[in-house]
Write a structure and sequence with these properties.
The complex is a heterotrimer of chains A (664), B (144) and C (131).
Chain A (H helix, E strand, L loop, with lengths): L3 E6 L11 H8 L5 E7 L5 H14 L3 E6 L2 H14 L7 E5 L1 H5 L5 H20 L8 E3 L4 E4 L3 H12 L4 E4 L14 E2 L4 E2 H14 L3 E4 L2 E9 L2 E8 L14 H5 L5 E2 L8 E2 L2 E2 L11 E2 L5 H5 L4 H5 L12 E7 L1 E4 L3 E3 L16 E3 H8 L20 E8 L18 H15 L4 E6 L9 H10 L4 E4 L2 E7 L2 E8 L4 E7 L1 E6 L1 E3 L2 H9 L26 E3 L9 H19 L3 E3 L5 E3 L9 H5 L5 E9 L5 E9 L9 H5 L5 E3 L4 H11 L2
Helix pairs in contact in A: 1-5, 2-3, 5-18, 6-7, 6-15, 12-13
Chain B lengths: L9 E6 L3 H10 L8 E6 L7 H9 L4 E6 L10 H19 L6 E5 L5 H18 L13
Parallel strand pairs in B: 1-2, 1-3, 3-4
Chain C lengths: L3 H14 L11 H5 L10 H9 L3 H6 L2 H4 L5 H5 L6 H15 L10 H4 L6 H10 L3
The chains are: A alpha/beta (664), B alpha/beta (144), C mainly alpha (131).
Chain lengths: 664, 144, 131
């Protein structure tokens, strides 16, 4: 039996004005378990707290009920008081007789009656309270960043700066991501490579950072502070530590007809390749789908020319396992496929290109060496039509487009138009837009500059049809403000394709038990207040895997994610919330229902041996709650059919006791 | 107000993050609502086991209301969706047992909606009061 | 601005076409894609906008409704699924009904029924001339 002390607070006149506090204290004296009951002017004051401490010592109290303001206000205060008095802090319950009684009821008898009932419910609960201790778990001081684009690079650099080791896992042979493919960046027009490649070098040279390029995460186990991750290092057939990156093999390889994915297939590379000159790590990779040696066993040119002896045709995929305290998802985006938009003739004409392809065509390291030439005939285009919102804001057909705004297209199209007009003033540039969305620092000024200073024709309306005819592209579009249908003979049509999360994100989210929205963007723990954390503890979000964003925003979010990771890794131990679910293994029947409703993936199953009454043993499958992951929502407790699952601090018995006390 | 108006006994389950805070806000703004409503704090509306509601009716409650965060705003991401589905099932069962639909309710009240909390409780209490005493599920053995 | 009559007409057009013009985001792709744009006084995007604003009678008087080829390019390409051609079709029906001809009441139907008539024809007639 508990020995409970009841402390009724006057809160000046806030409570005492409407509730007869003395009567409340008196009424509770005879409740089961109550051995002491009193009232005081300000329970939360120093002298009020001392009063509690003295009462605990004098009456050997095991539980405390404070009838006062909302627990959201002073629960923490009174828990500390209890702890100082030598009680378990979770032996305290608050009866909220201010916000939910004295302040909302004016009549003294009614208020007093309700206050008594609320206090009795709290007493009934404390009678069933048990001391709770927050679980502790160690923190592995190492972070994993999945994705080596600008988001992953910035996150890794910031974490490493704080002194924690970081590993970057990147599926491509080099880090750099989409930003490495860009030409210039808005709104300042500095070249992407000039600002990105120094950061890539920083990553390579940072002792705290390891880069696992050409690798994938294949398995994640564990929980915050202790994730056990399996990383698959795909065979690149080149010894990473031996290759000097001289590039001789990439010049001598006889297999020349491999579409170069870095240039989006607009030119060819060899079967052994380094994606681009500033790649990090600058190591060659053999493409097993095209290498003659790997396919037929006859060639071996690269191994003959390699003076370092780095080529290893017998390489196999390797798996490494590592433990991490925190994981950052930075899987990035891709432009959506344009194949399904028949009206824009993307599949029919080489001169209909996406904006990312245009980036490569304008990039000095691109397939045309930076001169803007039509992909079909290598001529200078004189009339260029940009189409905005291709696949963005497209609610009609899920297979084709995306319902959301891709956010970055308005700005990069303005940038493209401006750059083209700057470099080739004889070019006519038309931009067909629905709305020009430029919310950002210096963004609208930038767009206006494209119109006012560079003479880009912005037309409000959408392109309805593009048809290739006699080497030209017939563009049929509406000008909504002029009220005319336009027919333009264009040389080049550029589609501002919507962006979508990388395909690998879905599989990764499953491994991390991180949640995703219907568009496969990672969901944040709170859309406003916790924008870089996933609801799954220890998993953080960086860059476009969370939603469309431009480079400055990505970098800002990457830094924010890094600071959250640092905050986690700086702790030696994690103190959990003790009000978590736990399963009674004698009652659990291993049905898996709780696992399905848990939003955090905190519940796993294990086979456990039980001794039966007849001294035999029986193996049963039972649910086990990981207390470090459980957030204590209680969804599983209701889903549990056998009644094995319960929530500490809010157990079914406790809540039932409250119901009984109220309904008495 | 009529003198002999029936004073119902109402149990309100409020989630800790939105509705309980909404109730606190109603208090902060001194918004009156009937004292018949007694609030039980739960971490999330999905902690409310249908058993609790049946227990309340068994012990003589006249109405039970469950308040949670608005859909999409759940502190635990998806808890209130579970509540919504569970309660739809429970309420249809209660309907079958002859418990009037107005005696149970699920309401979404955010931490900013003190006024909505008070208005909801007032409205609910009035509806329940007009139905009178709930005898159908009351367990007479629980009466002292 | 809208009187009772035009509101009734708007409601009728929306019901017949099943179109929700407020889904339109004013991109103009329907007009960009329309092959008979130059023939029309009012263009596909204007149809959507004018129906939304209840300006039905102007559209019914215009011969633009008959310039629409019903090629459904606008329906196919609208990014928001507004389906302007269905509005045009509904407006044509409105004109027919207003003339009072070619109209059947439910009571007339049993007289013209015969066993040969396919069920579907009956249903579509009901849909076309409902109420």
């Amino acid at each position: 039996m508990q020995r409970i002390g009841v402390f009724v607070c006057h809160c000046g006149t806030n409570i005492a004005g409407t509730v007869d506090v003395k009567a409340v204290a008196e009424a509770l004296k005879n409740e089961p378990g109550v051995v002491f009951s009193t009232d005081y002017q300000y329970m939360c004051s120093q002298s009020g707290q001392n009063m509690i401490k003295e009462a605990v010592a004098e009456h050997r109290l095991t539980g405390i009920v404070v009838c006062s303001c909302s627990p959201r206000m002073h629960e923490a205060t009174f828990r500390k008081t209890a702890q100082a008095a030598g009680l378990n802090p979770y032996m305290v319950e608050i009866a909220n007789i201010r916000e939910q009684c004295s302040w909302v009821h004016k009549d003294m008898p009614i208020g007093t009656e309700k206050a008594v009932i609320l206090a009795k419910a709290a007493v009934a609960k404390v009678n069933l309270n048990a001391p709770l201790t927050p679980g502790e778990s160690p923190v592995t001081k190492r972070a994993l960043v999945i994705g080596g684009g600008i988001a992953g690079i910035q996150t890794a650099l910031d974490i490493a700066d704080a002194g924690f080791p970081v590993d970057i896992v990147e599926t491509k042979p080099t880090i750099g991501g989409k930003m490495a493919q860009l030409d210039k960046t808005f709104p300042t027009l500095d070249c992407a490579a000039c600002i990105l490649t120094p950061k890539m070098v920083d990553v390579a040279q940072n002792e705290k950072i390891r880069i696992f390029s050409y690798s994938e995460v294949t398995d994640v186990k564990g929980f915050v502070g202790n994730f056990d991750v399996t990383i698959k290092r795909k065979a690149r057939y080149v010894k990473e530590d031996v290759c000097t990156g001289c590039g001789l093999c990439t010049e001598k390889c006889p297999q020349k007809n491999v579409p170069n994915e870095f240039n989006l297939g607009m030119d060819n590379r060899r079967a052994i390749y380094i994606p681009f000159a500033q790649a990090v790590p600058k190591v060659a990779t053999i493409d097993p789908n095209y290498c003659t040696m790997l396919k037929t066993g006859k060639c071996g040119v690269c191994s003959k020319v390699c003076t370092a002896g780095a080529i290893d045709y017998s390489a196999k995929d390797e798996y490494i396992e590592e433990r991490y305290g925190a994981i950052v998802a930075a899987t990035g985006f891709n432009p959506i496929s344009m194949e399904k938009f028949d009206e824009f003739a993307y599949s029919q004409s080489k001169d209909v290109i996406t904006s990312l392809e245009l980036e490569r065509l304008m990039n000095a390291a691109g397939p045309t060496g930076g001169t803007l030439l039509r992909p079909s005939d290598g001529e200078h285009p004189h009339t260029i039509v940009f189409v905005q919102c291709v696949g963005s804001r497209c609610a009609a057909c899920e297979q084709k487009g995306k319902e959301y705004c891709s956010k970055i297209c308005c700005m990069y199209t303005a940038k493209h138009a401006m750059l083209i007009r700057d470099k080739y003033p004889d070019t006519d540039v038309y931009v067909f837009y629905i709305d020009v969305r430029t919310p950002g620092k210096n963004f609208d000024e930038f767009y206006r500059r494209a119109v006012e200073e560079y003479g880009v024709h912005y037309i409000k309306g959408m392109v309805g049809k593009v048809s290739p005819e006699g080497g030209k592209l017939k563009v049929q579009a509406s000008d909504l403000i002029y009220g005319k249908q336009l027919h333009i003979d264009a040389d080049l049509v550029v589609l501002a394709a919507a962006i979508e999360p990388d395909k690998s994100a879905r599989g990764l989210a499953t491994m991390l038990t991180a949640s995703m929205d219907t568009n496969d963007f990672f969901t944040e723990a709170h859309p406003k207040l916790r924008p870089v954390e996933s609801p799954t503890a220890g998993v953080f979000l960086s860059g476009t895997c969370q939603g469309p964003k431009d480079i400055p925003e990505t970098v800002a979010q990457a830094g924010a994610a890094a600071s959250k990771v640092i905050g986690l890794l700086a702790k030696d131990k994690l103190l959990g919330n003790p009000c978590v679910a736990h399963s009674d293994e004698m009652m659990c029947n291993g049905c898996s229902t709780c696992e399905k409703v848990c939003p955090y993936g905190a519940i796993t199953y294990q086979d456990k041996e039980f001794r039966m009454p007849d001294r035999t043993t029986k193996v049963r499958r039972i649910a086990v709650v990981n207390e470090a992951v459980c957030q204590g929502c209680g969804a599983c407790t209701v889903a549990c059919m056998s009644g094995a699952m319960d929530l500490r601090g809010f157990s079914s018995k406790q809540i039932m006791a409250e119901v009984d006390a109220i309904c008495k | 107000m009529q003198v002999n108006e029936y004073k119902p006994l109402i149990v309100a389950f409020c989630c800790n993050w939105c509705s309980y805070a909404g109730a606190d806000l109603a208090g902060n703004n001194r918004l009156n609502y009937p004292a018949d409503v007694k609030i039980i704090r739960v971490p999330c509306s999905c902690r409310v086991n249908p058993m609790f509601i049946l227990r309340a009716f068994q012990r003589g409650a006249d109405g039970v209301i469950i308040c949670g965060c608005h859909p999409g705003d759940c502190h635990y991401t998806s808890g209130n969706y579970y509540t919504r589905r569970r309660m739809a099932l429970l309420f249809s069962m209660l309907d079958y047992l002859g418990i009037e639909r107005e005696r149970t309710r699920v309401e979404w009240v955010s931490a900013a909606e003190g006024a909505k909390f008070a208005a909801t409780m007032k409205d609910f209490a009035e509806k329940v009061a007009s139905l009178g005493e709930n005898k159908r599920l009351e367990d007479l053995r629980c009466k002292k | 601005m809208q009187n009772k009559k035009s509101e009734n007409l708007k409601e009728q057009v929306l019901r017949m076409s099943g179109v929700n013009p407020s889904k339109c985001m004013r991109c103009g792709k329907c007009s960009g894609t329309c092959p008979s744009y130059d023939e029309m006084e009012y263009h596909p995007h204007q149809f959507v906008y004018m129906v939304e604003n209840g300006d039905i009678e102007t559209l019914m008087k215009s011969d633009s409704v008959y310039k629409c080829l019903s090629c459904f390019a606008c329906v196919d390409r609208c990014p928001r699924g507004v389906e302007p051609a269905k509005l045009v079709e509904a407006l044509r029906l409105c004109v027919i009904r207003q003339k009072g001809k070619n109209h059947m009441t439910a009571d007339d139907i049993p007289a013209v029924l015969d066993d040969e008539m396919p069920q579907q024809a009956l249903v579509s007639a009901m849909r076309k001339y409902s109420k």
